[in-house]
Amino acid sequence: xxxxxxxxxAQPDPTGLTVLAEAxxxxxxxxxxxxxxxxxxxxxxxxxxxxxxxxAEQFAPPLRAQVRTALKLGDYPTVVAVxxxxxxxxxxxxxxxxxxxxxxxxxxxxxxxxxxxxRQEAIEKDIATALAAGPASVRVQRDGKALDLQIKPERxxxxxxxxxxxxxxxxxxxxxxxxxVSAEIMDFALSDDELALVLAHEMAHNMLGHNRGAPAQRIxxxxxxGARSKDREREADRWxxxxxxxxxxxxxxxxxxxxxxxxxxxxxxxxxxxxxxWRDRVERAETExxxxxxxxxxxxxxIP
Length: 304
Prior knowledge:
- By secondary structure, the chain is of the alpha+beta class.
- Helices cover about 45% and strands about 15% of the residues.
- A four-stranded antiparallel sheet has the order 4-3-5-6. Strands 7-9-8 form a three-stranded mixed sheet. It has a two-stranded antiparallel ribbon with strand order 1-2.
- The radius of gyration is 20 Å and the shape is globular.
């Protein structure tokens, strides 16, 4: 989704574009699993119905023809991946479908003369809004014909997941409805479980209302974070492990991840003190993972 930010102004390489598109799909798939796993802990419907959309509008006009060829995009925002069994799949969406309208809102036929995500962001916002209220109607173009389809909502947490322009292993953030991570973090994660840990941590901030001005999504579970920054980070760490487990990821990777991540990402004496020391995160993760294992062995629902 933020492929253009990663490539910047350089001439895009077709192989690199494909790799980045695959990374985008991976991110969306993991994030969607976490969102669905959070059903019962937060209200609402999963914002992403199980598709990945790319739009050549993200790139400067001279590059768009090459981008469309490399990613097999049409003139409109195009579906490049559909998760099997998802709301998008059950609604009949297919790879290659070009999005013409969401509900009564038509997608502008002419892309902006500058690189922007405006069209794609409008589609994502309209879909999330529609799914929160019920089924979403979309019109797509397939093989030159317009088709009207309907996507049904799935219970979960309303968080989007994006690859951002930020750089480094600390470049992960949330704003109440969105989670953004850097390409470096995605490369650093040794498995989908480790990447899920980072995404679930930021998603937990959204659920708990830790973002300034953003309301909490939480409807179940205990929030012990209080007002201090380090406590909020510790609580997001704790919730992340439950979100992972509920989504079918292995929270047991957390201690090892923090051991690898800490020495590489720590700012040492330059740290602003907003986050716990990585050793503290390892110790707390080990304790919480043991608690999750005990809860699971006892057949109890995993609630933070």
